[in-house]
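[job 0412] stage=fold_complex status=start
inputs:
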Amino acid sequence: KAGVTQTPRYLIKTRGQQVTLSCSPISGHRSVSWYQQTPGQGLQFLFEYFSETQRNKGNFPGRFSGRQFSNSRSEMNVSTLELGDSALYLCASSFDRARGNSYEQYFGPGTRLTVT
Amino acid sequence: QKEVEQNSGPLSVPEGAIASLNCTYSDRGSQSFFWYRQYSGKSPELIMSIYSNGDKEDGRFTAQLNKASQYVSLLIRDSQPSDSATYLCAVLTKASYDKVIFGPGTSLSVIP
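[job 0412] stage=fold_complex status=done
writing structure:
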């Protein structure tokens, strides 16, 4: 079974631009979560999508948005990029979203975003 | 108080020793707990999940959960240099509307 894929793997953008990152979950997985990882803040939860609906979101500004398509693929967008947005953006998929039960997530390789 | 805390590390152990990684969490209603391993420059990889009090063993790894003490640990027996990585504790918290919250990680170095 193929793992989680993310594209692109590396991006360099300048302040003020916007960026779109893509994630394809493991086949059959319906839940996709996005995380930002930086050396100072660790892994921070951005949002989670399940069946094309945002189920949960973290404490990030509205410049960060996402969506999920009917095939469970997900995209996240960051508008008006700031230097502080430089980070590794990770996507994680899981089979289902049964609240209170198991929630094993499998991560993609990540997209390394550098904002200059 | 942070939602998920881990011993700050770095932790160094000799090859063949037992490495003990600790994690505490603040939400008493949490039910699901996970350990991930992250090699430098790579993404996190799920090692273990644990949902009930007690021990769960998988090869050289043992996860231990004590919900009363809000404590979860990971023991690595017969540590190998290839175990050198950052270990992340993750908790599915009810207080944060079923978000998975990650701890800051503990860096483990196994010395040959």
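[job 0412] summary: Chain A has a mean pLDDT of 92.
[job 0412] exit 0
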